[in-house]
Design a protein that fits this description.
about 160 residues, alpha/beta, five-stranded mixed β-sheet, three-stranded antiparallel β-sheet, 6 helices, about 35% helix
């Protein structure tokens, strides 16, 4: 959007909204997950629950991603030092890699509901939970809004409103 290549984007709510209009859609929750086998392997190596993140191979989105920046801020605030990180450019790939026991993945809870219900992935309890955040559509304040973009924004507003009682 900053380069004028996109009219609208579905993004996590940025801290700085100076040049964009942000229309929130819903809250999301970032969590850390792993397979039972991976967690058992850590336990065999003597890793206790409080040090899972520091002792694991962590799979995170790349540093340019707003989700990764949010998670990096969480690590910094909670003084969590990382040792082994695999950067992935795509959340679907990150989820699949986590399901193959390559490490601990940082994912969005809503994207892995089935895996959590079936036990294919297990949530790692955190001493300090990650705060939920908003996602929504963003578009530049510096562009002339096309008719189609205006129609889309109006549609989203109507769909997101509470139903009449």
């Amino acid at each position: 959007m900053e380069d004028g290549k996109l009219d609208i984007g579905l993004i996590g709510k940025p801290d700085n909204q100076k040049n964009i209009n942000f229309f929130p859609l819903q809250e999301i929750e970032d969590i850390f997950v792993a397979t039972h086998d991976y967690l058992c392997n850590l336990q065999i190596r003597g890793v206790n629950r409080q040090h899972i993140l520091q002792s694991s191979t962590l799979m995170l989105l790349d540093k340019e991603n707003i989700t990764r920046q949010y998670i990096d801020s969480y690590f910094e605030k909670n003084h969590i030092l990382l040792h082994n990180v695999i950067e992935v450019s795509n959340l679907d790939l990150l989820i699949e890699m986590t399901k193959t026991s390559l490490g601990v993945g940082c994912v969005i809870r809503d994207f892995i509901k089935t895996e959590l219900q079936t036990g294919a992935l297990l949530e790692i309890p955190l001493k300090h939970p990650i705060h939920k955040r908003e996602i929504g559509f963003a578009y530049s304040k510096n562009i002339k809004i096309s008719k189609s973009l205006k129609h889309f924004i109006d549609f989203c507003r109507i769909e997101n409103e509470d139903p009449p009682s």
